[in-house]
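Example record

One chain of 666 residues, shown exactly as stored in the release files.
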Amino acid sequence: MATTLRAAWFGASFHLAILGGALAACRPPDEASSEDPGVTPQQVQLAYRNYYDVAFSPGGAMASSQLSRGTVFIPIRHPDTHEPRLGLDGSPLRYTCGVTFISPRKAITAAHCVDDINVWDPPHQPLEVRMYDPMVEADVKWEATAKSLTGTFPRYHRTPLGEGYSTRSYQCRVVARCGNAYGAYNCPGNFPRADTALLDCGPESPGCRYDYLSVADHEGVGVPVSMAWAHEVYAIPEDRGSDLWRHYTRYDGYDPVQNYHYYPANQLLPLVSRPWSDPPRPTVSLGVTLIGTDARLTELHGCHGSSGSGITQLNVGLGTQELLGPVATWDKWVFTAHDYDFLCEEPARTARKPGEGGLGYARLAVTQKLAEGKSTTDVCGTEEPGLFPNPLLWLTHDIWMLRKGMVGRQSFPKRWPCTDTTCTAWERLRVVNEPLVPVARGETVTLPPANVVAGMTYRVSVRIRSLESTPPLITLALGNQTLLRGVRPVAHAAESAGLVGIAFKATRGGSQVLQISAAQGSGAFAVTEITAVSDTLANGFEYRSQRVGMGIVEPGTRTPIPATWTRMASGFAARLKGGQRFLVTRQAFIRGRTWRVEFDTSRDVAGATCGFITSDNRELRMSCNSVSRHILAHFNLGDAQPVAFFVDLPRGQPDVALDNLRIESR
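Predicted structure tokens for this chain:
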């Protein structure tokens, strides 16, 4: 790849350097900067605290960004023949770039990552995209691997990551590429300075298992930004004459044949950016480039290799991350101090301060244009028998999925998070601020099909807010089976949206759709939190729609944040620390029923409590000690309306993982 534009950097010349999770400078700049032989690398502890976290357990505000992040592997080709370039040991070389999913099957990356040299025939060149499962850090043993690199280039020896390292790969194709420098292909607009591409990963739909983000509505200067990415981590020798220094730390001549980062033996680790510590504040967006790539700079930092990784901002009103654009290339003139001839920067030499530019992302307008194309095949459908693909209405894609037309949504009348004394239990415990989607008189909202099991019991609920003086009358139907007809929503304890819900037994099996419509005489209304769950199947958290509504309440707080995810033998599991509360909402809780709750734990637990929170702010709890790593509890709530189930782990207890949650009503 050959241009004067290239990836921005991450200050990382320290004992453990994060190296190469995205495409390293694929087209070399006109000239290289010189090395300063007098610099001594920083210790790993300082650099680790200041610049990045190894993030094996996605959680909190960054959970969706981390789960939406993947890596695309691009075989390096000769420009003239397109033949694979081989390393000195005969192995095929490859670039790696970050990707961010914006729908079940489509992901954004940088165009220079998948340019017309290495991807010259997009329809017939499938690329591997690798997604990162939640992992247990102690089982990955990444620090031992980081310190294990020995031998002589290119036949280094390394200890592989531990058995807890877990990824999943998908075959994807470039379906659009914007930017004249990289061979524009199916670009939906005139963006000659762009550096953005769109991948389609087909019907396996990685976003349904992991997650996907909405694209932001706006960008600006001074907006807090963050980045989830992936890179291998190795120790850097202090001896600058060593073989490792010359063939890993340095990137002389921008020749991938001479740098171990581009060899296939490396295993990438999931990482997240960190805010500034001195002074403590978020990293923010800065100004835009006027020539070269059309990009907005930020205070984030990366390696010769952060390209394509999604830079995101927090939508404060919704409480979710949204994508701005992929890390783009840029000219050397932007900052002459950058260590262009190093795989990563040296903080001791080119230390960054707040206000100084680092990574830039390809402009939001191009990301928005690429995200406009919608398809009825790009939905989460019949994942497993009995599961419903519950929509998340803070995602633009999911709103379109329901409406198949112009996207529209409106906020709740109360600010979120809801913390004042007028907040009801349901409003206070909403893990994410899911907006309302208006439904006009005579309009029907249709969910994607689900693989229904005949004779299985299901629970369905939807929150409804009236939009006019004529009250809403709701009809729910599953295929030809009418579940409710002309029902008025019930608002408990002055909730800002009423609830319609029912438990029922499916009369027919197979692929069926759930429909929400206005009955005759109904006024216009808006819907939110549409939930359909099996009353008998355990929730293994394996799909994105199974993890929605799961949160954590930290000690001393009342507002939940998105749950933290780790791994048990069966896959995804929720991680709970001592003193935390695990909160389960959006489970179609029906009034006036008894409940049987059971789940697995990663260890036997003593002293834990669990219970339900009701619409009138009562907590009905009991002891929940596990026996043989399993908890079973029964609750009779009388006529109370539950809004959440919770598990409390006492302070001082070691972490525990929760999985296979079954909440059954009777």
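Notes: The chain is about 10% helix and 35% strand.
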